[in-house]
Amino acid sequence: MSRLRIGITIGLHHEAETLWNNGIKQNAVFLAEALRNCPNVASALLVNTTAIPISSALPWDLERWPTVSFEDAKDSVDVLIELGGQIDAAQTDYLKRRGARVVSYCCGFEYIHAMEAVLFGRRMSGGNLFVNQRYDDIWVIPQVANISQSYFEVLRRQSGREVPFIWSHVFLDARVRRLPHAGEYQPHAGPRRLSVMEPNINVVKFCLYPAMIAELTYRERPDEIALLQVTNAEQIARNNVEFIALMNQLDIVREHKAVFLGRHDTPAFLAENTDIVISHQWENPLNYFYLEVCWQGYPLVHNATLCADLGYYYRDNDVHDGAHRVIEAIDTHDAQHAFYRERQRALIRRYLPDNLQLVETYSALLDELVRRPIR
Fold first, then answer.
1. What is the pLDDT of residue 350?
2. Residue 82: which of 68, 94, 92, 97 has the closest Cα?
3. Which InterPro entries does the UniProt entry name for this protein (predicted)?
4. How many domains does the chain contain in total?
5. Are 69 and 47 in contact (CB under 8 A)?
6. CB 237: neighbour CB atoms within 10 A?
7. Among 227, 236, 301, 294, which residue's Cα sits nearest to residue 262?
8. Range of 214's domain?
9. What is the pLDDT of residues 62-79, one digit of tens each?
Protein backbone atom coordinates (compact mmCIF):
# COMPACT_ATOMS: atom_id res chain seq x y z
CA MET A 1 0.00 0.00 0.00
CA SER A 2 1.37 3.45 -0.93
CA ARG A 3 1.81 5.96 1.86
CA LEU A 4 -1.07 8.36 2.36
CA ARG A 5 -1.21 12.08 1.66
CA ILE A 6 -3.32 13.71 4.37
CA GLY A 7 -5.08 17.07 4.42
CA ILE A 8 -6.43 18.55 7.67
CA THR A 9 -8.89 21.43 7.38
CA ILE A 10 -8.73 24.77 9.13
CA GLY A 11 -10.96 27.81 8.59
CA LEU A 12 -9.01 31.07 8.59
CA HIS A 13 -10.84 34.33 9.25
CA HIS A 14 -7.90 36.65 8.54
CA GLU A 15 -4.33 36.38 7.29
CA ALA A 16 -2.56 36.67 10.64
CA GLU A 17 -5.07 34.81 12.79
CA THR A 18 -3.75 33.92 16.23
CA LEU A 19 -3.36 30.35 17.39
CA TRP A 20 -4.56 31.26 20.88
CA ASN A 21 -8.16 32.41 20.35
CA ASN A 22 -9.33 28.79 20.46
CA GLY A 23 -7.78 25.35 20.34
CA ILE A 24 -9.02 24.28 16.90
CA LYS A 25 -6.03 25.41 14.83
CA GLN A 26 -3.62 24.09 17.45
CA ASN A 27 -5.50 20.79 17.27
CA ALA A 28 -4.98 20.68 13.50
CA VAL A 29 -1.26 21.34 13.86
CA PHE A 30 -0.85 18.71 16.58
CA LEU A 31 -2.75 16.14 14.51
CA ALA A 32 -0.52 16.86 11.52
CA GLU A 33 2.55 16.35 13.73
CA ALA A 34 1.25 13.01 14.98
CA LEU A 35 0.21 11.73 11.55
CA ARG A 36 3.62 12.52 10.10
CA ASN A 37 5.05 10.05 12.58
CA CYS A 38 2.83 7.28 11.18
CA PRO A 39 4.70 4.86 8.88
CA ASN A 40 1.76 4.80 6.43
CA VAL A 41 1.67 8.61 5.99
CA ALA A 42 3.70 10.40 3.32
CA SER A 43 2.60 13.96 4.14
CA ALA A 44 0.16 16.00 6.23
CA LEU A 45 -0.94 19.44 5.06
CA LEU A 46 -3.18 22.05 6.65
CA VAL A 47 -5.98 22.89 4.20
CA ASN A 48 -7.78 26.22 4.51
CA THR A 49 -11.44 26.07 3.49
CA THR A 50 -12.11 29.83 3.47
CA ALA A 51 -11.17 32.50 0.90
CA ILE A 52 -8.45 33.98 3.16
CA PRO A 53 -5.11 33.81 1.29
CA ILE A 54 -2.18 31.90 2.74
CA SER A 55 0.75 34.17 3.58
CA SER A 56 3.80 34.50 5.81
CA ALA A 57 1.65 36.48 8.24
CA LEU A 58 0.30 33.23 9.67
CA PRO A 59 1.71 32.61 13.18
CA TRP A 60 3.16 29.18 12.46
CA ASP A 61 6.11 27.84 10.50
CA LEU A 62 4.81 27.20 6.97
CA GLU A 63 7.80 25.01 6.16
CA ARG A 64 7.19 22.80 9.17
CA TRP A 65 3.38 22.88 8.79
CA PRO A 66 2.63 23.54 5.11
CA THR A 67 -0.72 25.28 4.65
CA VAL A 68 -2.60 25.43 1.35
CA SER A 69 -6.04 26.27 0.01
CA PHE A 70 -8.63 23.60 -0.68
CA GLU A 71 -8.21 24.28 -4.40
CA ASP A 72 -4.49 23.53 -4.15
CA ALA A 73 -5.07 20.36 -2.11
CA LYS A 74 -8.14 18.76 -3.70
CA ASP A 75 -6.29 16.84 -6.42
CA SER A 76 -3.50 15.47 -4.24
CA VAL A 77 -4.89 14.32 -0.88
CA ASP A 78 -5.83 10.69 -0.28
CA VAL A 79 -7.58 11.50 3.00
CA LEU A 80 -9.13 14.82 3.98
CA ILE A 81 -9.72 15.17 7.70
CA GLU A 82 -12.35 17.84 8.30
CA LEU A 83 -11.38 19.43 11.60
CA GLY A 84 -11.47 23.23 11.68
CA GLY A 85 -13.12 24.16 8.40
CA GLN A 86 -16.10 22.54 6.71
CA ILE A 87 -16.22 21.47 3.07
CA ASP A 88 -19.48 21.62 1.15
CA ALA A 89 -21.44 19.02 -0.83
CA ALA A 90 -19.73 19.77 -4.14
CA GLN A 91 -16.24 19.62 -2.61
CA THR A 92 -17.14 16.34 -0.90
CA ASP A 93 -18.40 14.90 -4.17
CA TYR A 94 -15.23 15.97 -5.97
CA LEU A 95 -13.02 14.20 -3.44
CA LYS A 96 -15.17 11.06 -3.49
CA ARG A 97 -15.04 10.85 -7.30
CA ARG A 98 -11.25 11.05 -7.03
CA GLY A 99 -11.26 8.10 -4.62
CA ALA A 100 -10.30 10.13 -1.55
CA ARG A 101 -11.68 9.45 1.92
CA VAL A 102 -13.25 12.13 4.08
CA VAL A 103 -13.07 11.93 7.89
CA SER A 104 -14.89 14.14 10.38
CA TYR A 105 -12.57 14.87 13.31
CA CYS A 106 -14.76 16.05 16.20
CA CYS A 107 -13.09 18.12 18.89
CA GLY A 108 -15.83 20.58 19.85
CA PHE A 109 -18.92 20.49 22.04
CA GLU A 110 -21.32 20.59 19.13
CA TYR A 111 -24.31 19.22 21.07
CA ILE A 112 -23.98 22.03 23.59
CA HIS A 113 -23.54 24.59 20.81
CA ALA A 114 -26.71 23.28 19.16
CA MET A 115 -28.65 23.52 22.43
CA GLU A 116 -27.49 27.11 22.95
CA ALA A 117 -28.40 28.02 19.37
CA VAL A 118 -31.92 26.65 19.81
CA LEU A 119 -32.64 27.78 23.38
CA PHE A 120 -30.82 31.10 23.55
CA GLY A 121 -30.77 32.33 19.97
CA ARG A 122 -27.03 31.92 19.46
CA ARG A 123 -26.52 31.54 15.71
CA MET A 124 -24.73 28.29 14.90
CA SER A 125 -25.06 27.90 11.14
CA GLY A 126 -25.96 31.35 9.90
CA GLY A 127 -29.26 29.90 8.74
CA ASN A 128 -27.52 27.66 6.18
CA LEU A 129 -27.00 24.42 8.06
CA PHE A 130 -25.22 21.77 5.99
CA VAL A 131 -24.92 18.31 7.54
CA ASN A 132 -22.49 16.20 5.53
CA GLN A 133 -23.72 12.59 5.43
CA ARG A 134 -20.92 11.20 3.30
CA TYR A 135 -18.08 10.91 5.80
CA ASP A 136 -16.12 7.68 5.60
CA ASP A 137 -15.47 7.81 9.35
CA ILE A 138 -16.08 9.98 12.41
CA TRP A 139 -13.20 10.42 14.86
CA VAL A 140 -14.11 11.87 18.25
CA ILE A 141 -11.65 12.94 20.94
CA PRO A 142 -12.46 11.46 24.36
CA GLN A 143 -13.54 14.63 26.17
CA VAL A 144 -16.37 15.36 23.74
CA ALA A 145 -17.47 11.76 23.11
CA ASN A 146 -19.84 11.49 26.06
CA ILE A 147 -21.83 14.62 25.24
CA SER A 148 -21.60 14.79 21.44
CA GLN A 149 -20.80 11.43 19.80
CA SER A 150 -24.42 10.28 19.52
CA TYR A 151 -25.39 13.71 18.18
CA PHE A 152 -22.80 13.34 15.41
CA GLU A 153 -23.77 9.76 14.62
CA VAL A 154 -27.49 10.42 14.17
CA LEU A 155 -27.11 13.51 11.99
CA ARG A 156 -24.23 12.17 9.90
CA ARG A 157 -25.60 8.60 9.57
CA GLN A 158 -22.21 7.13 10.38
CA SER A 159 -20.80 5.45 13.47
CA GLY A 160 -18.06 7.27 15.37
CA ARG A 161 -15.07 6.12 17.35
CA GLU A 162 -12.92 7.66 20.06
CA VAL A 163 -9.39 8.61 19.02
CA PRO A 164 -6.43 9.72 21.13
CA PHE A 165 -6.21 13.32 22.26
CA ILE A 166 -3.05 15.08 21.06
CA TRP A 167 -1.19 18.02 22.57
CA SER A 168 2.25 19.51 22.07
CA HIS A 169 4.22 22.10 24.02
CA VAL A 170 5.72 23.52 20.80
CA PHE A 171 3.64 26.73 20.82
CA LEU A 172 3.85 27.07 24.59
CA ASP A 173 7.66 26.87 24.37
CA ALA A 174 7.70 29.67 21.80
CA ARG A 175 5.44 31.79 23.97
CA VAL A 176 7.44 31.44 27.20
CA ARG A 177 10.90 31.77 25.68
CA ARG A 178 11.18 35.45 26.61
CA LEU A 179 9.54 35.14 30.03
CA PRO A 180 11.69 34.99 33.18
CA HIS A 181 12.48 31.37 34.12
CA ALA A 182 10.78 30.32 30.84
CA GLY A 183 7.46 31.02 32.54
CA GLU A 184 7.81 28.07 34.92
CA TYR A 185 6.40 28.13 38.45
CA GLN A 186 8.71 29.76 40.98
CA PRO A 187 8.28 29.21 44.73
CA HIS A 188 8.10 32.19 47.06
CA ALA A 189 7.12 33.05 50.61
CA GLY A 190 3.93 34.80 51.58
CA PRO A 191 0.24 34.66 50.71
CA ARG A 192 -0.87 32.93 47.49
CA ARG A 193 -2.40 34.51 44.41
CA LEU A 194 -5.29 32.36 43.18
CA SER A 195 -6.27 32.48 39.50
CA VAL A 196 -9.43 31.29 37.74
CA MET A 197 -9.20 31.41 33.93
CA GLU A 198 -12.38 29.77 32.66
CA PRO A 199 -13.74 31.10 29.34
CA ASN A 200 -17.17 31.87 30.87
CA ILE A 201 -18.95 31.54 27.53
CA ASN A 202 -21.16 28.54 28.37
CA VAL A 203 -21.87 25.96 31.08
CA VAL A 204 -18.87 23.80 30.16
CA LYS A 205 -16.22 25.92 31.87
CA PHE A 206 -17.60 28.62 34.16
CA CYS A 207 -15.95 30.46 37.05
CA LEU A 208 -18.61 30.11 39.75
CA TYR A 209 -17.46 26.89 41.42
CA PRO A 210 -13.76 27.87 41.28
CA ALA A 211 -14.68 31.16 42.97
CA MET A 212 -16.52 29.19 45.65
CA ILE A 213 -13.47 26.96 46.14
CA ALA A 214 -11.40 30.10 46.61
CA GLU A 215 -14.00 31.40 49.07
CA LEU A 216 -13.87 28.26 51.22
CA THR A 217 -10.08 28.41 51.20
CA TYR A 218 -10.19 32.06 52.22
CA ARG A 219 -12.60 31.36 55.08
CA GLU A 220 -10.20 28.76 56.47
CA ARG A 221 -6.87 30.49 55.68
CA PRO A 222 -7.60 34.23 55.17
CA ASP A 223 -4.04 35.33 55.90
CA GLU A 224 -2.62 32.96 53.29
CA ILE A 225 -4.64 34.29 50.34
CA ALA A 226 -3.30 37.45 48.70
CA LEU A 227 -5.86 37.73 45.91
CA LEU A 228 -8.40 35.90 43.79
CA GLN A 229 -8.17 36.82 40.10
CA VAL A 230 -10.97 35.79 37.74
CA THR A 231 -10.16 36.37 34.08
CA ASN A 232 -12.66 36.49 31.19
CA ALA A 233 -15.16 37.88 33.71
CA GLU A 234 -14.96 41.66 33.46
CA GLN A 235 -18.19 42.06 31.49
CA ILE A 236 -20.32 39.79 33.65
CA ALA A 237 -18.88 41.36 36.82
CA ARG A 238 -19.91 44.80 35.54
CA ASN A 239 -23.19 44.07 33.79
CA ASN A 240 -24.77 40.83 35.01
CA VAL A 241 -26.90 41.50 38.09
CA GLU A 242 -27.22 37.80 38.99
CA PHE A 243 -23.44 37.30 38.89
CA ILE A 244 -22.85 40.47 40.90
CA ALA A 245 -25.38 39.36 43.52
CA LEU A 246 -23.79 35.93 43.83
CA MET A 247 -20.25 37.29 44.12
CA ASN A 248 -21.32 39.75 46.80
CA GLN A 249 -22.21 36.81 49.04
CA LEU A 250 -18.52 35.85 49.22
CA ASP A 251 -16.20 37.15 51.92
CA ILE A 252 -13.27 37.18 49.51
CA VAL A 253 -15.19 39.64 47.33
CA ARG A 254 -16.70 41.78 50.09
CA GLU A 255 -13.27 42.15 51.71
CA HIS A 256 -11.77 43.35 48.41
CA LYS A 257 -9.55 40.33 47.87
CA ALA A 258 -11.00 39.50 44.44
CA VAL A 259 -10.68 41.13 41.03
CA PHE A 260 -12.58 40.35 37.82
CA LEU A 261 -10.51 40.86 34.71
CA GLY A 262 -10.74 40.64 30.93
CA ARG A 263 -8.96 38.23 28.61
CA HIS A 264 -5.29 37.46 29.29
CA ASP A 265 -2.54 35.47 27.61
CA THR A 266 -2.28 32.26 29.65
CA PRO A 267 1.52 31.74 29.80
CA ALA A 268 2.24 35.37 30.71
CA PHE A 269 -0.57 35.59 33.25
CA LEU A 270 0.67 32.43 34.95
CA ALA A 271 4.25 33.70 35.09
CA GLU A 272 3.43 37.21 36.24
CA ASN A 273 0.31 36.87 38.38
CA THR A 274 -0.33 33.32 39.57
CA ASP A 275 0.60 30.88 42.32
CA ILE A 276 -2.35 28.45 42.17
CA VAL A 277 -4.89 27.84 39.40
CA ILE A 278 -8.41 26.70 40.31
CA SER A 279 -10.59 25.17 37.60
CA HIS A 280 -13.93 23.45 37.14
CA GLN A 281 -15.41 21.66 34.15
CA TRP A 282 -18.74 20.15 33.22
CA GLU A 283 -18.43 17.66 30.33
CA ASN A 284 -14.95 18.93 29.41
CA PRO A 285 -12.66 16.54 31.30
CA LEU A 286 -9.48 17.23 29.30
CA ASN A 287 -8.23 20.34 27.52
CA TYR A 288 -5.13 22.25 26.51
CA PHE A 289 -5.34 24.70 29.39
CA TYR A 290 -4.83 21.97 32.00
CA LEU A 291 -1.78 20.67 30.16
CA GLU A 292 -0.26 24.13 29.73
CA VAL A 293 -0.64 24.88 33.45
CA CYS A 294 0.77 21.54 34.58
CA TRP A 295 3.60 21.49 32.02
CA GLN A 296 4.80 24.79 33.48
CA GLY A 297 4.69 23.37 36.99
CA TYR A 298 1.81 25.41 38.42
CA PRO A 299 -0.51 23.72 40.91
CA LEU A 300 -3.78 23.04 39.09
CA VAL A 301 -6.80 22.31 41.29
CA HIS A 302 -9.35 20.69 38.99
CA ASN A 303 -12.09 18.07 38.58
CA ALA A 304 -11.20 16.79 35.10
CA THR A 305 -11.70 13.02 35.19
CA LEU A 306 -9.69 12.16 32.08
CA CYS A 307 -6.53 13.61 33.61
CA ALA A 308 -7.17 12.97 37.29
CA ASP A 309 -3.51 12.02 37.80
CA LEU A 310 -2.42 15.55 36.89
CA GLY A 311 -2.32 18.46 39.32
CA TYR A 312 -4.50 18.45 42.44
CA TYR A 313 -7.70 16.62 41.57
CA TYR A 314 -11.00 17.03 43.42
CA ARG A 315 -14.14 14.97 42.87
CA ASP A 316 -17.09 16.02 40.72
CA ASN A 317 -18.59 19.31 42.00
CA ASP A 318 -17.27 18.97 45.54
CA VAL A 319 -16.01 22.47 46.29
CA HIS A 320 -15.06 21.45 49.84
CA ASP A 321 -12.71 18.82 48.41
CA GLY A 322 -11.44 21.47 46.01
CA ALA A 323 -10.64 23.82 48.88
CA HIS A 324 -8.77 21.04 50.67
CA ARG A 325 -6.62 20.57 47.56
CA VAL A 326 -5.89 24.32 47.40
CA ILE A 327 -4.76 24.21 51.03
CA GLU A 328 -2.62 21.17 50.22
CA ALA A 329 -0.98 23.13 47.42
CA ILE A 330 -0.39 26.09 49.76
CA ASP A 331 1.23 23.83 52.34
CA THR A 332 3.31 21.50 50.15
CA HIS A 333 3.80 22.69 46.58
CA ASP A 334 6.85 24.88 46.98
CA ALA A 335 8.84 22.17 48.72
CA GLN A 336 8.36 19.76 45.82
CA HIS A 337 7.83 22.09 42.87
CA ALA A 338 10.69 20.75 40.72
CA PHE A 339 9.63 17.14 41.22
CA TYR A 340 6.01 18.10 40.56
CA ARG A 341 6.90 19.79 37.26
CA GLU A 342 8.93 16.83 36.02
CA ARG A 343 6.21 14.37 37.05
CA GLN A 344 3.57 16.42 35.24
CA ARG A 345 5.66 16.42 32.08
CA ALA A 346 6.24 12.69 32.29
CA LEU A 347 2.49 12.09 32.58
CA ILE A 348 1.64 14.51 29.78
CA ARG A 349 3.95 12.69 27.36
CA ARG A 350 1.10 10.27 26.65
CA TYR A 351 -0.52 13.09 24.64
CA LEU A 352 2.53 14.17 22.64
CA PRO A 353 2.59 13.67 18.85
CA ASP A 354 5.55 11.29 19.03
CA ASN A 355 4.09 9.01 21.70
CA LEU A 356 4.48 5.51 20.30
CA GLN A 357 1.07 4.17 21.37
CA LEU A 358 -0.68 7.28 20.09
CA VAL A 359 1.07 7.05 16.72
CA GLU A 360 0.31 3.33 16.40
CA THR A 361 -3.37 3.99 17.07
CA TYR A 362 -3.64 6.64 14.37
CA SER A 363 -1.71 4.48 11.92
CA ALA A 364 -4.16 1.61 12.52
CA LEU A 365 -7.14 3.98 12.11
CA LEU A 366 -5.84 5.05 8.71
CA ASP A 367 -5.20 1.46 7.62
CA GLU A 368 -8.74 0.51 8.55
CA LEU A 369 -10.14 3.63 6.86
CA VAL A 370 -8.63 2.95 3.44
CA ARG A 371 -9.86 -0.65 3.53
CA ARG A 372 -13.46 0.57 3.81
CA PRO A 373 -15.51 1.12 0.65
CA ILE A 374 -15.94 4.80 -0.17
CA ARG A 375 -19.38 6.11 0.78
1. 98
2. 92
3. DUF2827
4. 2
5. yes
6. 18
7. 236
8. 178-350
9. 999 999 999 999 999 999
